[in-house]
Amino acid sequence: LCKSHSAMNHGTxxxxxxxxxxxxxxxxxxSHSRTVLATGPDGFLDDRPDEGLFVHETRLLSRYRYSxxxxxxxxxxxxxxxxxxxxxxxxxxxxIGDGAAAHANINEAAQQAIELRLSRFVGGSVHEDVDVTxxxxxxxxxxxxxxxxxxxxxxxxxxxxxxxRGEKSSRWVPGxxxxxxxxxxxxxxxxxxxxxxxxxxxxxxLCIRFFNATSP
Length: 216
Known about the structure:
- It is a single chain.
- This protein is mainly β and about 220 residues long.
- Mean pLDDT is about 85; it is low at about 1-15 and about 95-105.
- The protein is about 0% helix and about 60% strand.
């Protein structure tokens, strides 16, 4: 929100306060309480300002992008279902000759394509269903790739110079019927201010859990 004043020579109104709204038309937002997932126009995250998975104004996810066999997904349709849920459809053209994803003419891809549907729901955490459908009418072998990363930046730091200088780590944790990718961030600094001194510490973490997969 930006407030501006404009001179209006009409009756006794010489200085009338105006409110100018600048909606973020290029950002898709799904939110609940203090959890906000703000993605780019393609529904993904690429370390851009104001985008990410934010919890209490800390960006846990800064990068989150799918691809198939190294080919970018072409967004067909995406929209909020309501404030807490979002649905997106993508396709990748497939070269029927060898069954590998290729950068073909997207206008000819409707009949011979792989479709990826993302269904997102934001509550206490973010739940995402990933459905891949083969519309080529023949078996196709492919690799679905997800690139996630988190910088654990403050919301202001997504636009300005980074103030925190911590250490980030990641590890895979297997489970009985799932796999967890755990990202952790820790930072600390010494302080001496107004008679108080010590070491301030910050610890943040994110768990990305994969389950109900129909392939390894």
